[in-house]
Design brief:
Elements: H1 9-21, H2 36-51, H3 58-67, H4 71-76, E1 84-87, E2 96-98, E3 104-106, E4 113-116, H5 118-128, H6 134-141, H7 147-162, H8 170-184
Antiparallel strand pairs: 1-4, 2-3
Helix pairs in contact: 1-6, 2-7, 5-7, 7-8
GO molecular function: kinase activity
Domain Aminoglycoside phosphotransferase: 10-145
Keywords: Kinase, Transferase
Length: 186
Amino acid sequence: MLVKRRPPAAVAEVLRALHQTTADPWPWLRSLDAGNDLVARLYDDTWPRLAARTDLSAEVRDLGERLQGQVVAVEQQLVDAGPLTLIHGDASAQNIRTSTDGAVALLDWEDVSAAPGVLDLAWFLVSSVEPTRWAEALDAYGPAAGLRVAMPSTVVQGLLSMADWPEGSPEALGWNERLAVARSML
């Protein structure tokens, strides 16, 4: 998938095109509930260490606390986020390249699955887009009715990703900022 423009709007357009042109699930793709138990255990094991961090804002800490013990239920709610489509599964800046003429390519398709398309959009926002540019990406993607339903699952992944960065690091502070905006969308 290639679209000419600059991210984040260009990436949102690529994701929209992917999700609109692949509206039928394929039985050989990883199912929507694959790995839910594993992610839930990982989150519950990681949360106490995260909760003790000083770089976690009160609003993100509150949401993280509410997600403890609820990850499987949050993941099961994804069926209400929209129709199943082909998704990239890890639409983050590290998996996106832009050519000198503005063409955008999605790389690293190892997490491809059948899921609601807004899951890709939510992960792109939380993992890679400055909150001041979220509206730009949302406008470029178009209607994203299930985004609110997809966001808790994305917050779980975001908190797990934040745990990989040293406390107080610019990367961790960026995660916290984006997670706070995600929380405001719930």
